[in-house]
Backbone:
């Protein structure tokens, strides 16, 4: 069955990419002030239609960023009762997308028994596709064309130097400082790009603090490269879907409670040492104590 599921994922990505490329990119703001475009809505609708037959069975559920009722799945017993969990982000990097930039992607993940299984992330304007078939992961250039070039993603463990690139997120500098002389920072404003690029050597890792749909599609892909998401605070790795990982009581319940570092096991401690909590935040913590 996995071949059929993967084929559907590729069909969705291709069709979704066409929607994104012809979209006028006009946008509005959601209740949390994040950006919503017509392409987000249309690709979300596309996914629901494409797997509607599967969603009629008790084994499949779909967690979609653009589904206003997605919080109903924040129940561990409910998730455990579902063998296969589809997780989609119709457009990740929506701000960049709405401004005509190429750093956005369509992310589709399929978890089996709460663990990463199949995954796909497609960057339509870059023509690049990352996907995992459950055993191996692949990087494809000129995706969905006659000039496709595909290669297997293999274990990677970069040596960190002053010329290395560490990919950060939008909120990084709100709480942290960084020793740029040790390693350079880049913020592409696209979570899935930060999780996929290090798997092929474009960066030594990434700083991550986002939602389930931001990492579900790339999860099995970066695991194939020997990378994982480990908590910045505790060093614990995310190994399966657990609702305790998320800020369920907040206004953003599917967001991870903690910040994570994507890296090889060897590089985790090296990268964590370079991330310094801002002094003013440390001072506030002492006052509270």
Residues:
């Amino acid at each position: 069955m996995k071949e059929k599921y993967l084929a559907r994922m590729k069909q969705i990505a291709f069709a979704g990419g066409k929607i994104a490329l012809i979209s006028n990119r006009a946008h509005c703001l959601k209740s949390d002030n994040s950006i919503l475009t017509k392409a987000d809505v249309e690709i979300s609708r596309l996914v629901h239609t494409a797997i509607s037959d599967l969603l009629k069975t008790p084994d499949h559920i779909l967690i979609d960023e653009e589904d206003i009722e997605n919080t109903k799945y924040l129940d561990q017993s409910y998730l455990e009762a579902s063998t296969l969990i589809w997780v989609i982000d119709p457009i990740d990097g929506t701000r960049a997308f709405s401004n005509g930039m190429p750093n956005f992607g369509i992310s589709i993940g399929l978890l089996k028994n709460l663990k990463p299984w199949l995954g796909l992330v497609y960057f339509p304007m870059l023509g690049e596709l990352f996907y995992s078939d459950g055993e191996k992961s692949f990087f494809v250039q000129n995706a969905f064309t006659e000039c496709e070039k595909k290669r297997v993603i293999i274990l990677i463990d970069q040596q960190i130097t002053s010329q290395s690139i560490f990919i950060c997120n939008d909120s990084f500098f709100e709480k942290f400082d960084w020793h740029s002389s040790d390693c350079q920072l880049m913020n592409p404003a696209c979570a899935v790009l930060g999780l996929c690029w290090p798997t092929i050597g474009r960066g030594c890792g990434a700083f991550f603090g986002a939602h389930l749909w931001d990492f579900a599609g790339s999860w099995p892909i970066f695991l194939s490269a020997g990378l994982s998401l480990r908590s910045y605070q505790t060093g614990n790795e995310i190994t399966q879907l657990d609702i305790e990982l998320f800020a369920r009581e907040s206004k953003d319940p599917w967001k991870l409670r903690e910040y994570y570092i994507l890296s090889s096991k060897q590089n985790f401690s090296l990268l964590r040492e370079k991330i310094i909590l801002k002094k003013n935040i440390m001072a506030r913590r002492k006052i509270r104590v």
DSSP finds eleven helices and 16 strands in the chain. The mean pLDDT is 92. Residues 165-287 form a domain with the D-Maltodextrin-Binding Protein; domain 2 fold (CATH 3.40.190.80).
